[in-house]
Amino acid sequence: MGRLAICPGSFDPVTYGHLDIIQRGAKVFDHLVVAVFNNQSKSPLFTVEERMELLKKATADMPNVSVDSHSGLLVDYAREKKAEAIVRGLRAVSDFEYELQITSMNRKLNEDVETFFIMTNNQYSFLSSSMVKEVAKYQANVSDLVPKVVEEALQKKYR
């Protein structure tokens, strides 16, 4: 199978920022599993199933990317999948502190899995799913922030 990495997130919904990280991670690893996790501290707009479906459509042109979900610990999922790495995106210094804590804990729980950080493309450095949802809620144009399939799903949710 080659080198396998996991790109975890809540992806509620997937944005062009996420897709940038996914595409770039997929260039480095033989196979990239985009894993939808439910963040307990957030109340999601889309169900896990809906998020997976949107991700599948948004990554359909990436042959070495698959979509999955998991409800437990990322390190357990990585062990189960025999993944070598975790791929995470960093937007700003504010992300770094949070990601450093997560990475340190993951390393303590499973030192066999490395975490790779990819700096977000500058054009997406401001972009977050929360921001997209906030803007979409007021029927503002989000076509340059998310794929068409996500834009349509957001319009349907906020109709």
Automatic annotation (TrEMBL):
UniProt-annotated binding residues for substrate: 10, 42, 74, 88
Domain Cytidyltransferase-like as annotated: residue spans: 6-134
UniProt key word Transferase: yes
Binding site for ATP: 10-11, 18, 89-91, 99, 124-130
GO molecular function: ATP binding; pantetheine-phosphate adenylyltransferase activity
CDD domains: PPAT (cd02163)
Record EC number: 2.7.7.3
GO biological process: coenzyme A biosynthetic process
Cofactor section: Mg(2+)
SUPFAM superfamilies: Nucleotidylyl transferase
GO cellular component terms attached to this protein's record: cytoplasm
Protein's UniProt keywords contain Flavoprotein: no
UniProt entry keywords in alphabetical sequence: ATP-binding, Coenzyme A biosynthesis, Cytoplasm, Magnesium, Nucleotide-binding, Nucleotidyltransferase, Transferase
Assembly, per entry: Homohexamer.
UniProt name for this protein: Phosphopantetheine adenylyltransferase
Organism: Paraliobacillus quinghaiensis
